[in-house]
Amino acid sequence: MQTTENLKDYELLDMANGEKLERWGEYILIRPDPQIVWDVKEKPELWKKAHARYDRSSTGGGSWENLKPMKSTWSIKYKDITFNLKQMGFKHTGLFPEQAVNWDYMMDKIVEEKKSKKEIKILNLFSYTGGATVACLRAGASVCHVDSSQGMVNWAKENVKSSKLQDSSVRFIVDDVIKFVQREIRRGNKYDGIIMDPPSYGRGSNGEVWSIEKDLFYLVTECSKLLSDDPIFVIINTYTGGLSGTIIQNILRMALSKKDFSNISTNEIGLKCSNSSMLLPCGITTKWENNK
């Protein structure tokens, strides 16, 4: 499992009884995670310090319960990147900290590639609040950020501005991902890297239905037509238990039929508990990289 050691403003403090205890900057939150099936708290005293807990409803969804005073929004930093957080519906805060290991990878690859290329163009699909977008901009790439939610795109813009990258080369697009990719193919646009974080299920900006099982292979195949002659990487992050890393590798092999299959890899990504040696899996990253 890949984890990062560079998270200073985030900690996984403890986990038990289907919940994780996390520090997000100045606040400690309790959030549900169905993978946590044991009932032993290694640091029970820390749970009393929580500022808020997300309680799931037996009928679906849930709500936040503030246990101590909190600001409606706050920020944390990763290296010299700033992310704005808030308590969202369905337990989220607007950031997936386990993705830091991928941000590091992207930034390193872009910085290395910038030594020989004048411009690096990255396409970020299902881009949420822009963690990968900000990381790639910080490394010096030009980014096209696509998400079907206007609210998420606005949030990504705030993260770019907070990180003092508002003068960077970035396009923000609110659109259905598949329709946007099809238009980019017709326009003849090319990208040196493609990143995607597809949900299991979702809806596009005009109600288009997305199903990862039905649509991912088609999307990746279409995205292959957008790659430049000398691309850097294709990265797919998945969180659904329905598709294993091996299946995503197979999709990349079929979609990138002209690329070197030996350059395709899959790794579990996760978080290390700061008070023990325990690890919490948070998803799978499958990537093709151009090992020149």
Task: Give descriptors for this structure.
single chain; 292 residues; alpha/beta; Immunoglobulin-like; Rossmann fold; 2 domains; 7-stranded mixed beta sheet; 5-stranded mixed beta sheet; 25% helix
Briefly say what this structure is.
With 292 residues, this protein is α/β, with parallel strands linked by helices. The protein is built from 7 helices and 16 strands. A hairpin with a 2-residue loop joins strand 6 (73-78) and strand 7.
Query: How many E-type strands?
Result: 16
CATH superfamily of the largest domain: Vaccinia Virus protein VP39
Helix coverage percent of residues? 25-40%
Q: Mean pLDDT across all residues, rounded? A: 93
Report how far apart the termini are: 25 Å
Beta-strand content estimate: 25-35%
CATH topology of the largest domain: Rossmann fold
The biggest sheet amounts to:
7 strands, mixed
At CATH level 2, the architecture of the largest domain is 3-Layer(aba) Sandwich
- Give the count of structural domains: 2
Backbone CA Rg:
19 Å
Label the structural class. Answer: alpha/beta
Quaternary state of the chains:
single chain
Strand order of the largest sheet: 10-9-8-11-14-16-15
Overall, the morphology is: globular
| Count of DSSP H/I helices | 7
Return residue spans where pLDDT drops below 50 for at least 5 consecutive residues.
none
The top-level CATH class of the largest domain is Alpha Beta
